[in-house]
Amino acid sequence: PKVAVIIVAAGSGQRLGYGLPKAQVPLGGRTILEYALQGAVESGVADRICVAVPAGDTALRAICARFHSPVPISTVDGGASRSESVRRALAGIGGGPGGVLVHDAARALTPPEVFRRVARALAGGASAVVPAVAVVDTIKTAAPSGPDQQQIAAEKVAGTPDRSLLRAVQTPQGFDAATLAEAHRNAAGLDPDGITDDAMLLETIGQEVFLVNGSPLSLKITSPLDLVVAEALLAGQQP
Ligand code: C5P
């Protein structure tokens, strides 16, 4: 079964330092949004696509309108947080039964196979599916250092989670659409900036979230360095 695909592209892109909404930043002679749309379309899993763009934006809307796609692409105004943008796009896809994939435009080079892998696990009966990769760094939790330690450093280590249990999660994240909509309704009281992905909302209502293999190509283009890496990947060079 086909799924609706939401692409959240309403971020400001401040950390990229381009003075443009991130999804509009040039990449490989096109824009970040066009690569994200291409992955979703090429995967063949989408029956419709809804893109959340910055409120009042016309350039990204125009890109969506002229993008060559066999399935309809609609746009909605995004919100002040990623989760608000997802909520608005969920309204934009018009509800109904079935699955929905939520994808960050910033993960512009996500291979179509990852979309298919997530959609297959959804079709297999999961209510929530997340692509993930192993973590290469040792991750530590941080805490403020004591008042008499401030001259050494502002923070100190609070703990070291077992790396073998950690996964870095990516998008597209796949959900039963009705379950995701309910999870977002329940999230109304949470700090929107603390909601960094959709799966965490399902976790808070006790839903099982399944992990499938993500891809190193699904890097989230956030900093100028990431853009250099993405350009090199497109040029077929090893970064
Ligand atoms: O800000 P962050 O890097 O977590 O953004 C992840 C994705 O969410 C990006 O593709 C960005 O465009 C999108 N986003 C959004 N609306 C916001 C903030 C972020 O659609 N208000």
UniProtKB/TrEMBL annotation:
This is 2-C-methyl-D-erythritol 4-phosphate cytidylyltransferase. The record marks R15, K22 as: Transition state stabilizer. InterPro entries: IspD (IPR001228), IspD/TarI (IPR034683), IspD/TarI_cytidylyltransf_bact (IPR050088), ISPD_synthase_CS (IPR018294), Nucleotide-diphossugar_trans (IPR029044). Belongs to the IspD/TarI cytidylyltransferase family. IspD subfamily. The keyword Nucleotidyltransferase applies. SUPFAM superfamilies: Nucleotide-diphospho-sugar transferases (SSF53448). Gene3D superfamilies: Spore Coat Polysaccharide Biosynthesis Protein SpsA, Chain A (3.90.550.10). The keyword Metal-binding does not apply. Catalyzes the formation of 4-diphosphocytidyl-2-C-methyl-D-erythritol from CTP and 2-C-methyl-D-erythritol 4-phosphate (MEP). PANTHER family: 2-C-METHYL-D-ERYTHRITOL 4-PHOSPHATE CYTIDYLYLTRANSFERASE, CHLOROPLASTIC. CDD domains: CDP-ME_synthetase. The lineage of its organism: Bacteria, Bacillati, Actinomycetota, Actinomycetes, Micrococcales. Keywords: Isoprene biosynthesis, Nucleotidyltransferase, Transferase. GO terms for molecular function: 2-C-methyl-D-erythritol 4-phosphate cytidylyltransferase activity. The record marks R163, K220 as: Positions MEP for the nucleophilic attack. Pfam families: IspD (PF01128).
